[in-house]
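Retro notes, item 3 of 5
We never archived the inputs for the adenosine-5'-diphosphate complex last cycle. Fixing that now. Sequence and ligand:
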Amino acid sequence: MSADREKQTRVLAVSNQKGGVGKTTTAINLGTALAAIGEKVLIVDMDPQGNASTGLGVPRETRRATIYDVIVDGRPIDQSAVETAVPGLFIVPADADMSGVEIELSQADRRSYRLRDALAAQGGNGHTRYDYVLIDCPPSLNLLTLNAMAAADAVLVPLQCEFFALEGLTQLMRTIDMVKQSLNPALEIQGLVLTMYDRRNALSGQVAADVRSHFGDKVYDSVIPRNVRVSEAPSFGKPVLIYDLKCTGSQAYLKLARELVARERQRRQALAA
Ligand code: ADP
Ligand code: MG
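Structure as it came back at the time:
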């Protein structure tokens, strides 16, 4: 394999400043789907609510090391990641400690680069462990989100197909521009994924059309439908692909994973050409 085709880690911040748009659901299930097609994946739970951790079956009482230890105490990522029930899918969990990070790091060096530095340290020795790192961001623009965007190669944006979707997006695009001008000039937009799409609802179709006309081929062809199995799965501590592989939600996340990998391959080929 030539050097430029060698596998590199792609770090993606799953972000949108709106809450409830499917960030955590996408991090969990896209992560699972990527692992299912042979990619090695790390999910970094950056939300103090710890929903990605719970949804992947890492109960609070078992979270010995968390992203807090990484960000605040400089604990190596490797020592903080746990393998989930999905082979090839790892997570650095979060818990409520994370809500104090802003204050604890107020005097720290490189306070916005704590995650970036931790990821760079674990990828050392010329040995890259993960194909994808998915960072599940909190719904606000705080130091945790800035750490995620400073660490990321690109932002993956879940968009709920509802009326205020575009309004939230304007805000997110402003944040991304701000981060590019300050913390991370190389930050890209990986893609936008439409979530909770309801084909019986005319508004869903209208929002999808509007988003596609604004963002063109940055929007994935794969669309995640609203599917009750997707919302049930976290209460069992399982990704929907494990809970019910055949349901429309699982199949949509598999399709999205294949599309993301195919586009990523194209992007790398274009860079190498
Ligand atoms: P965020 O992380 O952006 O706040 P979540 O991923 O937690 O959003 O999703 C918000 C709510 O919507 C959750 O209750 C989740 O189970 C539900 N949900 C997300 N995606 C779907 C879907 N495709 N179908 C049905 N419910 C969904
Ligand atoms: Mg969330």
